[in-house]
Known about the structure:
Elements: E1 5-10, E2 14-16, E3 22-29, E4 35-38, E5 48-53, E6 59-62, E7 74-77, E8 82-88, E9 102-110, E10 119-129, H1 134-143, H2 146-154, H3 161-170, H4 175-190, H5 197-208, H6 214-222, H7 234-249, H8 253-262
Parallel strand pairs: 2-10
Antiparallel strand pairs: 1-3, 3-8, 4-7, 5-6, 5-9, 9-10
Helix pairs in contact: 3-4, 4-5, 5-7, 6-7
Amino acid sequence: MPEQLELTLTAPKSVVRGEFFFLSLTLRNRGDVASTVSARLNLFESDLFIQADLPDGRHVRLQGHTQIDSLPNLVELGPGEQIESSCSVFFTDCGFAFDTAGAYKLRAEYYPHLGKPPIFSNYAEVTILPESDESQRERSAQTMTEEFGQGVACGEADGVEDKFEALVTQFPDSQAATVAGMVLAVSKARSAESPDAQKAIGTHLQHAAERDSPHQVARLAMTIAPPAPSPDDPLLGALDVFLEAASQEHEDMQAIQESLRKTRPN
């Protein structure tokens, strides 16, 4: 049987406008021969794009807000093996592509290796719901700003720390606040303002695990992993600690941890 790769895209069924959300991707080798593929399953290294049909009928092809020129990151997938990753589409090269209430039809476009044709995922649909109360409208007013969008997309809160801190304080149980807290801790660590950044990020991961599974929390963290992380990046360090602990309670987490490590940016 020839090489047979399958790309699966998973999206939340619905999200309230202004709440942070992300897409999950799984690349599986369903053939009976090994395949060498790109592990750059993210939107800022030019091997992955998200096609989206918008509620107004327009079609867009989304990339990350920031693009980097990185080295190839190739992995070999044996028969039955898979890698997975997650990507944020909250703020992209098109800005806020999901800023209007309505149904969005999505499909991933992935280039597995130089010279190979692209692979397209299944279609997934996400519905953006309008805000239904004052709290949700206030949250949207804070998240649907260029400062917050760019900060989350780049993993950087320099100059807008007060906006991120306000979001964490006012909406502690929202996914947007979890992301804001992690970005804030990473940003402070890079500016040498917080030697305990990894511990702070770990606290946010544990808080998120009270709402979602460890697997889902790990996916969330990977959406804000920096495009070119240093070996001692506090976010990746905290994620390793979180996954190690989770693997003691959940047998499948060790395989998930290894899969996520393969798709980390160079």
